[in-house]
């Protein structure tokens, strides 16, 4: 697999050039890269053009600059020092946004190996900003809390649970008692909460048992504020990444079950991703650590002797992915060597495509940038490979797609893809 670190290295050199901080060795390295090809020369000129860079940076929201900085920390391993002044931190985070834009420009060549041509229409109007930490929490009494507007700290109580919102976009349930029902309160009616992210939103939640869940855009998770000792059961719509805490009642492990479109995933303690959007053709469950059992709840109770119809249930090992196909006879099959990086790219702040068709790409764009997408004419059959930050304005994605012959018409928040 290609090492994308080189793109960040070149991006860092260009940002240092813009800040006037290149040392002699770095200047020589950058000059050598520029001299390698006419494409590099053209790209360098475009990325360092002051008016263009200023316009692109203005499209970042303040939170977008913050998330861009955190993404660079993750990609490069760098950390700010304690001696950094407030002004220095503010500039470095601004520079991080610039670095994201520069790297996205470099990645145009990862897709097409030719200069991107941006139409004036797209350049003028496609300033759709990426998604941010946004969600709505629905409590047991049906009252709702808008989490992106709520102040940090304690926001609600549910029975003996204190619900807290943290500054880094996380919802935390703190139990004053055991998060698993005891024998005395098994007859009590469960209290359910639901966290829902809109299109253009994401959020994290730490459940009462300590399990961590990352919700992608246009997703929801329903869960009790106290789990039953016979099983910790939640319901998912959309996409989420789970890190399940091991929970024991006495000497018995309490299973964790995720019900999503047409399936139930049962685990004890593990890391996995479920993609169950209603507009995707296949429900995908990808296992990173531990072991999970995936049960096809749409299949009949009698075993099917036809090997092409898939399984009623599968036990996944790390690195595997189950795929549940729809139809009158839903099929549950396993991919022995799944692309783990692609499956969780969204959680790590990336779009990652591996021979991905345009319709799939546009569905991801629609959810993350909160836009409506329509196709006009024949849909291009091209497949795309590459990786780009989810922190960039939508125009950066358009540059990549346009360079391969895809055109767009923009009307408000509706995007028409024209062949």
Automatic annotation (TrEMBL):
What's one GO MF term for it? sigma factor antagonist activity
Stored Gene3D superfamilies: 2.60.120.1440, 3.55.50.30
**Pfam families given in the database record:** FecR, FecR_C
In what residue span(s) does the Protein FecR C-terminal domain sit?
Answer: 351-417
TM region positions: none
Domain of life, per the record?
Answer: Bacteria
The FecR protein domain covers which part of the protein? 194-293
Name of protein? FecR family protein
């Amino acid at each position: 697999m290609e090492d994308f670190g080189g793109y960040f290295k070149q991006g860092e050199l260009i940002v240092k050039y813009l800040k006037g901080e290149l040392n002699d060795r770095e200047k020589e390295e950058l000059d050598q890269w520029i001299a390698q090809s006419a494409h590099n020369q053209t790209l360098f000129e475009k990325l360092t053009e002051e008016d263009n860079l200023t316009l692109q940076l203005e499209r970042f929201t303040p939170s977008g600059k913050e998330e861009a900085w955190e993404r660079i920390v993750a990609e490069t391993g760098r950390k700010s020092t304690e001696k950094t002044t407030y002004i220095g931190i503010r500039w470095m985070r601004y520079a991080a946004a610039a670095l994201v834009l520069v790297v996205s420009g470099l990645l145009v060549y990862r897709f097409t190996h030719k200069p991107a041509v941006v139409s004036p229409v797209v350049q003028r109007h496609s300033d759709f900003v990426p998604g941010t930490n946004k969600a709505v929490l629905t409590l047991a009494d049906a009252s709702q809390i808008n989490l992106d507007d709520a102040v940090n700290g304690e926001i609600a109580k549910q029975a003996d649970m204190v619900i807290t919102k943290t500054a880094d976009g996380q919802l935390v349930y703190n139990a004053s008692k055991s998060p698993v029902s005891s024998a005395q309160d098994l007859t009590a009616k469960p209290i359910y909460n639901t966290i829902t992210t809109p299109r253009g939103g994401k959020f994290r939640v730490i459940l009462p048992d300590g399990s961590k869940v990352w919700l992608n855009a246009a997703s929801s998770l329903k869960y009790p504020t106290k789990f039953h000792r016979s099983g910790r059961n939640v319901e998912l719509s959309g996409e989420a990444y789970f890190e399940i805490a091991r929970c024991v009642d006495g000497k018995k492990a309490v299973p964790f079950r995720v019900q999503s479109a047409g399936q139930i995933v049962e685990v004890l303690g593990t890391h996995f991703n479920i993609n169950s959007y209603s507009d995707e053709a296949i429900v995908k469950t990808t296992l990173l650590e531990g072991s999970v059992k995936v049960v096809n709840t749409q299949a009949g109770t009698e075993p099917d002797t036809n090997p092409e119809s898939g399984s009623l249930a599968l036990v996944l090992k790390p690195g595997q992915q189950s795929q549940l196909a729809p139809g009158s006879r839903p099929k549950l099959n396993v991919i022995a060597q799944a692309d783990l990086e692609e499956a969780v790219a969204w959680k790590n702040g990336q779009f990652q495509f591996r021979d991905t068709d345009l319709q799939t790409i546009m569905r991801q764009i629609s959810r993350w940038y909160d836009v409506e997408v329509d196709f006009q004419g024949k849909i291009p059959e091209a497949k795309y490979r590459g990786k780009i930050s989810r922190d960039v304005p939508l125009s950066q994605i358009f540059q990549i797609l346009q360079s391969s012959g895809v055109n767009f018409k923009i009307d408000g928040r509706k995007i028409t893809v024209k062949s």
